[in-house]
Request: fold
Amino acid sequence: MRVRAGARTDIGRVREGNEDSFVADEPLYAVADGMGGHRGGEVASRLAIETLETLFRKGRGAFAEQVREANRAVFERSMLDRAVAGMGTTLTAAAVEPGRVRLVHVGDSRAYLFREGLLRLLTEDHTVVHEMVQRDEITAEEAEVHPHRSILTRALGTEPDVVVDEHVVETREADRLLLCSDGLTTMLSDDEVAGILRDQADPQAAADELVRAANAAGGIDNITALVLDVEADDAPASRADASAPATAVEPRAEGRGAAATSAAVRPSRKPRREPSVRWGHLLVRVGAAALVAALGVAGARLWLDAQWYVGVSNGRVAVFRGVPTEVAGFELHEVVVETEIPAAEAKTLPFYADLDEGITAGSREEADAIVEQIRADLEESTLVAPGEETP
Ligand code: MG
Reply:
């Protein structure tokens, strides 16, 4: 058996950097989705991929042990370098062997098998919502759009050691494997993914089309797709390695500053702006201290990176990442964008009186939408007397 591979990574339409990394160099294929403030996510995913690749080439240890080594590399860097403290990454990797594929997996990137027109998920998401589904607390459909679907229960680099899922999948000629980051699967349904894998015979064309479709559906996260076609040994030679660099990471804009966003934000699928219902969930306050206790420090960091709210910074309306509180003297938030809107003016409007306490949002996009709403309401307030819109 040999593999013909197509690979593409894309920044998406919202993020300011690409924190996904991948390797597509037969027989090793892997996707990593980094998270962490500033440049942490980029560093974590790249370091994980590079460490795995180096150990794999040297044949050092079992496949899962190589992943645990990559975990240690990311963890140690995170401890040594304040700038990337708390970073982490997912890692889903495949080693192709004759007649089978070895998979190792941590996080919520995914591996699928597409065989005879059917798409089968091979990995399990290491997320809080997946555990809720397993406990029958919510349905799989509810999990897809759950506001906390981004909270990982396992990641590389957040603890000194990590539990690695391992699978061996028997492969046949004409099987197709897909490795992808959640920026693909939060934008496209399984049916949409299967349709593209069915329609696009060439693996590179399939990877390109998956990324194009995820962008067309919103592109709210970085998107990476690796498509691996299992072929008979007498098939024409692979051409994947010529088109896919060994470790491909999108070119990065330097010096973007504090507005750089984190890959830990996984907004719900196909978000819609619905200002009329925005008050339904925004004022739900979170028991942050309880969550820190429940998740542990590393888990809490991952979780905090996925939380957003609108509050007040330097007297102006601002978008924050984290939660509007502190625990044991540590502030659990950072300012991401400070707008020009005076907070005092916003607070004169009936809905925004509690702005100082923070208005929680399900995603960065939702936080931005709240800011736009405040702006619009302020403009409108010059025409409509406050109080008329009180629910
Ligand atoms: Mg992602």
About this structure: The pocket of magnesium ion is lined by residues 33, 181-183, 221-222, 263 (CB under 6 Å). Residues 40-58 form the longest helix (19 residues). Confidence is low (pLDDT under 50) at residues 237-287, 384-391. The longest strand covers residues 330-342.
